[in-house]
Amino acid sequence: MKSIPGRRFRGIAGTRHRQSVAALLFVIILTGCSHKEADRDWQAMVAPVRARYAPDPRLAVFHAEIRADKDGVFASGEVEGDTAKRELLKLLRQTATGPIADEIKVLLDSALGSRNSGLVNVSVGNVRREPDHAAELVTQVLLGDTVELLKKNGGWNYIHCPDRYLGWIDEEALLAVDAAAVTAWNSADLYRVVRQYELLRSEPRADAAPDYDEWHARAFVPARRFVAQ
Fold it and tell me: Which of left, alpha, beta for 205 (phi over 0: left; psi -120 to 50: alpha)?
């Protein structure tokens, strides 16, 4: 049976037309998906995870920024602990239709190494909301207190205080130590200062040179140092 040239041309043209329509539909669907991703209220979506791991932002870190465009979903920020990050990414993978770029940092920062604790070595350490001496005062720590280091920024450390409050403290107010040093410190013989303030001296004499600055009430004193009776 002989083929009819006109019919063959119409068949080829029809196939090409269907392919063009399919490609156009794919682009429309893809564009629609990217718009759908961009229009999502991502902060509301991750709110349950934030509420689980950081119900009080003064006591736990969960700063996740989620944005989306035609290239996918981008997750950045900081969270405290691997478990919080895994649950956040699991939620995003269940929701997003495109690829997810993970740029979320986990605290405590691995750059700190094993020395991720700090012993307060000033009478009173000011803990501030930002790494700046002019920033709002959040709380204070006392000489001898043990704190948890989370990250560094220049000459400042971001810490958990003994009461779990978060804030920045001047690195000069701390001695960075490892877990063994914390254990040794906590098991050492200590005395609690009960006066309003006291000087710690190198020898048991009133005229001996002070070893540190003033120790305020409720601070702990190592037994190997001397205070007036």
Answer: beta
pLDDT in tens, 179-196: 999 998 888 877 666 766
Q: Residue 191's domain is classified under what CATH number?
A: 2.30.30.40
Q: Give the number of domains in the chain.
A: 3
SS3 labels along the chain: CCCCHHHHHHHHHHHHHHHHHHHHHHHHHHHHHHHHHHHCCHHHHHHHHHHHHCCCCCCCCEEEEEEEECCEEEEEEEEECHHHHHHHHHHHHHHCCCCEEEEEEEECCHHHCCCCEEEECCCEEEEECCCCCCCCEEEEEECCCEEEEEEEECCEEEEECCCCCEEEEEHHHEEEECHHHHHHHHHCCEEECCCCEEEEECCCCCCCCEEEEEEECCCEEECCCECCC
pLDDT of residue 134: 97
- Of 152, 120, 136, nearest to 216 by C-alpha is 120
199 in Cβ contact with 227 (< 8 Å): yes
Structural domain span for residue 31: 1-36
134 and 207 part of one domain: yes
Q: What is the pTM of this model?
A: 0.70
